[in-house]
Amino acid sequence: MNKLIAASVLGLAVAVAGCTREERADAGNDVEAAAEKIAAEARDAVDSPELKEVGSEIKEAAGDAGQVIKETARGAAEGAREGAAKVESEAENVADDRHTSENERR
Questions:
Q1: 3-state secondary structure at position 48
Q2: Cβ–Cβ < 8 Å for 24, 16
Q3: According to the UniProt record, where is the region Disordered (predicted)?
């Protein structure tokens, strides 16, 4: 692996050394121009109405999801209350039945 890295670095050094100053400057200018073009396109994309619409849709979807979660939690809480009331009622019925059975035995 070290030999591969060393060979790559040596190859790069030979390639750079083989380039004239003018070629290196041209390559640097090309890279700079490409970077400027990409930055301009990125700015245009950020400012595009399409991207803003997508952002609005995401915000709306998040609000809808939040509402669904809230309603689900509300339904779960109501179901838990109903279940607890049913268990309590059944427990009272069992207690009443035991009390009635004990009185009948006497």
A1: coil
A2: yes
A3: 72-106
Residue type, 84: A
Ramachandran category for residue 8: left, alpha or beta (phi over 0 → left; psi -120 to 50 → alpha): alpha
pTM of this structure: 0.39
> pLDDT for 1-59, tens place per residue?
567 677 766 666 666 666 667 776 777 778 788 888 888 888 887 788 888 888 888 88
Q: How far apart are CA 79 and CA 73, in angstroms?
A: 10
DSSP letter at 33 equals: H
Write down the domain spans for the chain. Answer: 1-47, 63-106
